[in-house]
Amino acid sequence: MTPPFHAARKTELFGFLVLAAFVLLVLPGVVDPFRLNLVGKYLTYAFVAVGLVLCWGSAGILSLGQGIFFGLGGYCMAMFLKLEASTPEATKIQSTPGIPDFMDWNQLTALPAFWEPFHSLAFTIVAIVAVPAALAFVIGFAMFTRRVGGVYFAIITQAIAAILTILIIGQQGYTGGVNGITDLRTLLGWDIRTDSAKTILYFVNAFLLLGVIALSIAVRSSKLGRILVALRDKEDRVRFSGYDVAAFKIFVFCFAAAISGIGGAMFTLQVGFMSPSFVGIVPSIEMVIFCAVGGRNSLIGAVYGTLLVNWGKTTFSESFPELWLFAMGGLFIAVVMAFPNGLAGIYKSYVQPLFARIVVRPAHRRRPVGGGKTTPAIAE
Amino acid sequence: MTNNDFLLSVEGLTVSFDGFKAVDDLSFYVDPEEIHVIIGPNGAGKTTALDLICGKTRATAGSIRFRSRELTEMKEHQIVHAGVGRKFQNPSIYEDLTVFENLEISYPKGRSVFGALAFKRDAKVRERVAEIAEMIFLADHLSERAEYLSHGQKQWLEIGMLLIQDPELLMLDEPVAGMSVSERVKTAELLHRIIQGRSVIVIEHDMKFVEDIAHKVTVLHQGRVLSEGTMAHVKSDPRVVEVYLGH
């Protein structure tokens, strides 16, 4: 009944398969293990970018504080790993053995109560998703039921990112302060610092990312996905069509937060530490740039955008560390001004028609498809 | 005093914007299956009255009872669920979605977050959408993106989006404004068809159209009821002639 929808779905499926091949086969094939670990780190940011595609691209909710959720997921993982690394034997030179080293340095003599549950991996895995989602629910409930939106919402999320960073840095005894939680070693006895562990973690991360993208595709192609697009466009019409708009916004914001939390946890596992520098304003805005460069309406594009910007960052910041921030700002402005749909938009308007001319036309000639009057809609 | 015979009873409705009373002690009643037209000069409070009924604006004082439920205490989406549909003055549709998807979103099923996730586009939905699309002259445009529709088609689409909800009370804000002559004729015909069997409140300036459809006319002026009754009665009221119809 709605052929453009199916056509769009087919392109998305094709893009998904290409991405899967790229991430699972091409990258591990051509990149050496050290760089692969770096790519794995970049791919953890892609979780956030994918969340932003749903939140910002689909529903029009721009959050400049996604680092909050990435960080919370990462901290949950780090707390588990840190507890595992802080056995009484390993920490016997401390005045209180058995607690993380930074606590001992800060004259804590017992493990704080909120750290206790992180002895359990099952609890930790739930918390990685649930803690970011719960905070997103509180923020979303407070903001969206009061109809706070647009730039005001963006500013508030940014403020919360700043507050959380200050809180983490200030509560050094509980959080490891500005250094973060470092010196993480094993996951249930499995050493995560070896090359083979890093390769395995890369693939775990890649599969999780692909799973999250598949789930996001499902959400976007459900009626809920169309309602999000509708409310981005005409919020009042959705409200007066009998929908509780705030509930939908809260849902997508929590969903994006939960995804970001998974990314954060995978970051901790692959990089071996977590610190407040991944929580604050700058990383949060960088994540928005990844999404914008990739194309804020494309789940697949967001991944490439993340990889490209991070590759650029690593390459340029090695040679011109001062210039990088300006380059990044310039890139963001250029993308917004010239290519509002990012890489995905460039692909759609330049590369895809080229493909279509080469591949699709002969196919059409052989097998004329019924419902010709829908063709103009596809071309759009 | 109970008004259970009325579908909608608005009593003592007042809204004040920083001291300016856009609607001032307004009372009127709508019977089941009544076509009630609200007319009046610009700034009389017509659109504000609709905003108050559908919950877009909150009343400062007064009550709005719909089938003996108090609407002033309900949220917008609950008012819709109660059976009140509202069409806005400017065509308010989802430009990035197709005509089919526009109608589908308005289909009254899967309105909760998880309901929407689990919503299936089954045969019943398709049939209903096709039926409505036929009625609003857009059967050939189902897979077109709504932004490419003409102004008149957008108005029809929004009317269709209300129809698919099958509301008991339909509120239309200037449904024929900004249309070409042929679109206007078609729209009038469409409205005649869809207002059967339900109560309708219409705001309209087109007197010919009003005369055609109105069972009852309320004339508003500066937030208050100036005159009320049949079209013939209102037309002969000297106060109405002075402030509105005279020019």
TrEMBL record, chain A:
Its main location: membrane. It comes from the Bacteria. The keyword Nucleotide-binding does not apply. Coiled coil: none annotated. The chain crosses the membrane at residues 13-31, 43-72, 121-144, 151-170, 200-219, 240-267, 323-347. It is a multi-pass membrane protein. Keywords: Cell membrane, Membrane, Transmembrane, Transmembrane helix. It is found in: Cell membrane. The keyword Transmembrane applies. This is Urea ABC transporter permease subunit UrtC. It comes from Jiella sonneratiae.
From TrEMBL, chain B:
SUPFAM superfamilies: P-loop containing nucleoside triphosphate hydrolases. The gene is urtD. Coiled coil: none annotated. It holds the Pfam family BCA_ABC_TP_C. GO terms for molecular function: ATP binding. Gene3D superfamilies: P-loop containing nucleotide triphosphate hydrolases (3.40.50.300). NCBIfam families: urea_trans_UrtD (TIGR03411). This is Urea ABC transporter ATP-binding protein UrtD. Residues 8-247 form the ABC transporter domain. Keywords: ATP-binding, Nucleotide-binding, Transport. The keyword Cell inner membrane does not apply.
